[in-house]
Amino acid sequence: MEQWRSIEESSLWEAMASRPAFDLQTDLSHASIKKRIINAGGGLAYSYATMDIADETIDMLCNISQELDLQGQYRALLSGEIMNSGEGRMVLHHLTRGEPMGSVVKNGRNYGYFYRNEQKRIAAFSAKVRSGALKTPAGKNFKQVIQIGIGGSDLGPRALYLALEQWARERGLLKLKASFISNVDPDDANAVLASLDPDTSLFILVSKSGTTQETLANEALVKAWLARHGLNPSGHMLAVTSETSPLAGNPDYLDSFYIDDYIGGRYSSTSAVGGLMLSLAFGPDAFASLLEGAKEADLLALEADAKKNAALMNAMLGIYERMVLKRPSLAILPYTQALSRFPAHLQQLDMESNGKRVKRNGKSCALPTGPIVFGEPGTNGQHSFYQLLHQGTDIIPIEFIGFKKNQTAFDPDFEGSSARRKLNANLAAQIVAFALGKPDPNPNRFFPGNRPSSLLFGEELDPRALGALLAHYENKVMFQGFAWNINSFDQEGVQLGKKLAGSILEPGNLKAESGSTDKLAHILDSYAELLGAI
Amino acid sequence: MEQWRSIEESSLWEAMASRPAFDLQTDLSHASIKKRIINAGGGLAYSYATMDIADETIDMLCNISQELDLQGQYRALLSGEIMNSGEGRMVLHHLTRGEPMGSVVKNGRNYGYFYRNEQKRIAAFSAKVRSGALKTPAGKNFKQVIQIGIGGSDLGPRALYLALEQWARERGLLKLKASFISNVDPDDANAVLASLDPDTSLFILVSKSGTTQETLANEALVKAWLARHGLNPSGHMLAVTSETSPLAGNPDYLDSFYIDDYIGGRYSSTSAVGGLMLSLAFGPDAFASLLEGAKEADLLALEADAKKNAALMNAMLGIYERMVLKRPSLAILPYTQALSRFPAHLQQLDMESNGKRVKRNGKSCALPTGPIVFGEPGTNGQHSFYQLLHQGTDIIPIEFIGFKKNQTAFDPDFEGSSARRKLNANLAAQIVAFALGKPDPNPNRFFPGNRPSSLLFGEELDPRALGALLAHYENKVMFQGFAWNINSFDQEGVQLGKKLAGSILEPGNLKAESGSTDKLAHILDSYAELLGAI
What we know:
The structure is a homodimer.
Chain A: H1 13-17, H2 24-27, H3 30-35, E1 37-41, E2 44-47, H4 55-67, H5 70-78, E3 105-106, E4 109-110, H6 111-131, E5 144-148, H7 155-170, E6 177-181, H8 186-194, E7 201-206, H9 213-228, E8 237-242, E9 255-259, H10 272-282, H11 284-300, H12 310-324, E10 329-334, H13 342-354, E11 372-374, H14 386-391, E12 398-403, H15 419-436, E13 453-458, H16 463-484, H17 495-505, H18 508-514, H19 518-530
Parallel strand pairs in A: 5-6, 5-7, 7-8, 8-9, 10-11, 10-12, 12-13
Antiparallel strand pairs in A: 1-2, 2-13, 3-4
Helix pairs in contact in A: 4-12, 5-16, 6-10, 7-10, 7-13, 10-11, 11-16, 12-16, 13-16, 17-18
């Protein structure tokens, strides 16, 4: 991976990084709001007028993105080059929703065909469940679907489900209500099970490797629970896994659907990992529409000019905030309750992808990489942590998300306006309050302003808009990883904890595998003892 | 408030801040784990052996806490002095669970008596509802309780409810299942209402002022929904408010319970704001036990020696991380799914309290104050953002929370261990992995270590432990505010957005109230238009 450079090695870096600051209070103009908007696909637009970065700096960021050939790297990824360098893998999640650079055929397999064929199988299977053609062993209709998975098998699918649950209910499409079991804490599984009717429950076990500790432990618990209720687990369970895993084609499951190593967990929502649950819950058409929206965003991300490429622009502005303005975190603030868990998905997507300290060429990163990502829906956050965003000692860049319409119809006027108008008036007000602040002789009531934000907005949060939103962020994070010259597609940082936990549960492991010193073993023992784990 | 100084004005500050770094990999010893533990009340203990701060530095932090008289300020607060200086108010939330410094009698009122008398009224009322003595107008038993509130009327109560829901269910105490409506987004209320049986629902409207926009809009929506179902809202609604609000003693509610201006929203979980819902859901005894645990923590916080005062030690260590080591954020990572929303509560508690840039004497803070707070339960987070915590370019201090026992009994062994043992083995492993790291010739697999954490742990998450946990953090945040010499009890930073939102909804307001320029009005209009809010 010697051919790629990182952003601080580009010829324009020094000049760009030393450009004067942009003061929103003096430099923001009414006119720039209309100028700084980019189509983001799926009916969404990306507005970045209130980012504290001058036009000339943005021009230079655009030039840098071309010099670093971020576009070329995206095209290489789409074409099936080994972009997950450390693990020697292709990165193919885009193929779940289209083939922007044509077919990827390797090792005798057409990958786009493979992923989309699984979607066809899923569509047919979910149609049968939803229509009642496929029933429980006792002849009942399935009424709930429960996803058992962790990390990427949980956060993205859960965020997408919650994003569309009311949309689907309102339209009569919600046939199977979904629940999620993720944590190895048995109180998690027991809480979910307490709300279920075992006779009509359909579980999806999601583990690419078929060896995820949490997921297998939860499967065992769920199987014991089904057996307690006199049910045969194999009539109530599906698997999503890779073809080479122990779960594949296993008669313990009603059916199995497949993914592979070229789709990382946090990028797997548009594969069978998200597709099976979403198709069962909302129907295959809704899921197809989500894929269409994602495809639109993927195609727009091919545009070389960052000023016409929302994901690329968002990526470059974020890099500037992180590296030049030294801002360590990013708030994602959706003004819709439906996106209540979308920030948690982006927290994984971004922090697991770009929380790296080594470049693709093995050298250490001298400058900061991925930020901390956090967020809650507005207006709730306004009554919580916005105090610090407005008047704290640090500046935290914000990405707002908003929609013009509700998902549900019932919205009576109160004091002269609908709740929707109140919600969006608050969003508009916050953007302006952060940017412009407010002078006040009382220092407690002084708002410094100059706090940057951007806005992704659309008409309505429907499956197509949601697909575009998801892909926008996947592509943004990807472009940032390219610009930092890090591998956004591995996660070596999760291994050490796993290994040490294993050594507590099976004490033979520690000395054998991790090259432990006695000191480490002693300290590990002490904590395991404090917590009653040995 | 001229009598107080901030930490960088203390005589030991320079000496303390210039002390050598503490290297966990070389300096952490097995012995220190037993030495660095403090009783935190409610059966909890605070372990800080893996904080990257040397013993001598900690000694100096302890001395500084005495020089700044943080204890004296706590005692003053408990005694009813005006510690919310900007708003000229006392800060009395501790009195909801005890009177560590004796009665506070002012303006002809004994405040401890007042708060605890409301709790008695709540206990009697909830016992009647739970026993079925008090029924719906149609003669049915109430089966669900729904809290309508936002910010402190939502986050703390919701976090506490979720923390005990399985505990109570397992013990047959869960009589009314609770739901929460908070966001002004009508999709939030409609989602909750879709899951309810209107005939057996009991709503609690929580607004201290009786004027919170979101809460009143949601009340209007809920009342219209009840009316649609042919029900009289006044037979299905309670109010928690102040005695002077329009909601007080109002025949629109079945009953009203009271708080006052001396309990801030984010500190109100142990008042009627949390108490009514929790007592209805779990019974008055469970809530009384939560108060007992909180009282234990409050009493322990009176200890002058920080080495025996968990909240004070936690506060001082956090200040060192923030001000000396310049770490802008803090991860709260509970290893129990029951605390899934506890980090969101602490996000408000900490960021709204200490996200300030002005001291109590009106001078600007030259050094950083409150950090960004975020977190999710483990092991879920391990499969999400821990990658960045282990291998990112920034160091993020961590506060872990763990318990030895489950809340629920069903926990079959799988592969030789219970899920509980797996969970706690993971927690012990993470503490050690962050502290010690791991050498590796492959730079992608190298773990730098030296990443600090602390651990609050106990036997079981029951009401008493939860009360102590809540109070521990309230007191920690309070001590930090004292040490920064900021007012942790106001939230002026929420006002500007409110005002600007009002000016969109009622255009007369803008020019009248906020001293707006035409530019601000133009920009506000543009965003309101983009979002369809005008």
